[in-house]
Amino acid sequence: MTIVVTLAITLQRNLFAVVVMSGIYSFLMATALVVLDAVDVAMTEAAVGAGVSTVLLLGAIHLTQGNETRPLRKPLLPLVVALGVGAALIYGTLGLPAFSDPQAPIHVHVAPHYIEQAMAETGVPNVVTAVLASYRGYDTLGETIVVFTAGIGVIALLRRRRRRE
Amino acid sequence: MTVGSHYGYWAMMTLMIIGLYILIARGNLIKKLVGLSIFQTSVYLLYIAPGKLIGGTAPIIAEKFGIYSNPLPHVLILTAIVVGVATIALGLALVVRIYEAYGSIEEDEIIEKDSGLER
Amino acid sequence: MRSHLILRVVAKLLIPFMLLFALYVQFHGDFGPGGGFQAGVIFAAAIILYGLIYGLPAARLMVPDLVVESMIAGGVLLYAGVGLAGIALGGNFLDYSVLAADPVQGQHRGILLVEFGVLITVAGVMLKIFYVFAGRGKGIDET
């Protein structure tokens, strides 16, 4: 399961194995997303997480030192912090509505309007595409600009070749 | 409030804790970035899980189906995934530059070298 | 030698189908899962596969740097241009209903153009990041 894979990523030293296991983790996440009926998101997560992200990590490993991390002194404080955050989060989930409850607040406000009106107003059966491109088009414009900025940032950081003396 | 059906959320919390632990406890910069991506992916699951209706289907309108899962979280998470990969790409570019400037990607060695250079 | 031959043949068989699949995902994003982001990433992955198997100079010859950089900027310009066309034709910013005589047809046209802009930008950025990462390694080897 995914928890086993992430524990293996934590304990593994060889960076190449870490990258391969993160690809496995992305594929498992995509499967979980399909089970949750999020088909668009699953396709994006599989393409981006297990495709492009793995290629970029491998490129970075090739450009920096290959292989190993170092053994660490006992990380007690981060462990306590992580477990504390987890306990607070689990305490928070006790206030959530039951899983898959049709009367939960997120199902009664805007979502029924989108599902019922998307076909009539835009003529596009895929409600996610209709919402993404038409009802919430501003957000998609902002996201495209974020991707553009990331591209420019990488170009600015890494454009010139290293000049060795 | 039935708590018994929340075990799915607890599994996601476990993934989030592991991702957070990798991010703050390991010293290697590339491993920190992998931990960040694990953390982000568990948050995606956390957002999409409440939108699912048991017995519903994917939000693509067809004549045979009556109940659809909520499409709003899908839209937000689609944006979040692409922004996440942009973050990872930029972070990896920074790691490559740090390696060329300091000669190592371990956090302890970089801090030592930095304080050594300041003196 | 033999394993390189297998990789080359399989890549030659797969890359046209990957490009076709990217276009399919893009244009069927209205009727099934898909849309601009997925299609852009699949398109970039096809060209990255070509670059991995046949070497970076061959990929640079096929999709030159100038084309990639204009793709990055062109997608954002296309998206913003559709928004401004909405203003020019009398509606609000990013209002698609005024783009054609029938509002539903206008929505269709607007969504198609916008998704195409997203495809171009995402494919360009992923490809350019790959070029930059791989090109840097080459610099180390040549000195």
Q: Secondary-structure blueprint of this entry?
A:
The complex is a heterotrimer of chains A (165), B (119) and C (143).
Chain A: H1 2-11, H2 15-35, H3 39-63, H4 76-93, H5 111-122, H6 127-135, H7 137-158
Chain B: H1 7-25, H2 29-48, H3 72-102, H4 107-118
Chain C: H1 2-27, H2 36-54, H3 56-62, H4 65-88, H5 103-142
Helix pairs in contact in C: 1-2, 2-3, 2-5, 4-5
Q: Count of helical segments of chain C?
A: 5
Number of helices of chain B: 4
**CATH architecture descriptor name of chain B:** Orthogonal Bundle
Oligomer: heterotrimer
Shape of chain B: elongated
| Straight-line N-to-C gap of chain B | 60 Å
Low-confidence stretches of chain C: 139-143
The chain-level mean pLDDT of chain C equals: 84
Low-confidence stretches of chain B: none
Helicity range of the residues of chain C?
over 70%
**Proportion in β-strands of chain C:** under 5%
What number of domains of chain B? 1
Tell me the major beta sheet of chain C.
none
Keywords:
heterotrimer; A: 165 residues; mainly alpha; 2 domains; 7 helices; extended; C: 143 residues; elongated; disordered C terminus
Describe the structure in your own words.
The complex is a heterotrimer of chains A (165), B (119) and C (143). Helix content of chain A is 71%, strand content 0%. With 165 residues, chain A is mainly α. Chain A folds into 2 domains: 1-70, no CATH class; 101-165, no CATH class. The longest helix of chain A has 25 residues, at 39-63. The mean pLDDT of chain A is 80. Chain B has helices at residues 7-25, 29-48, 72-102, 107-118. In chain B, α2 (29-48) runs antiparallel to α3 (72-102). Chain B starts with 6 loop residues before the first helix and ends with a helix. Chain C has one domain (2-142). Chain C has helices at 2-27, 36-54, 56-62, 65-88, 103-142. In chain C, α1 packs antiparallel against α2 (36-54). The longest helix of chain C has 40 residues, at 103-142. Chain C is elongated and about 60 Å long. Chains in contact: A-B, A-C, B-C.
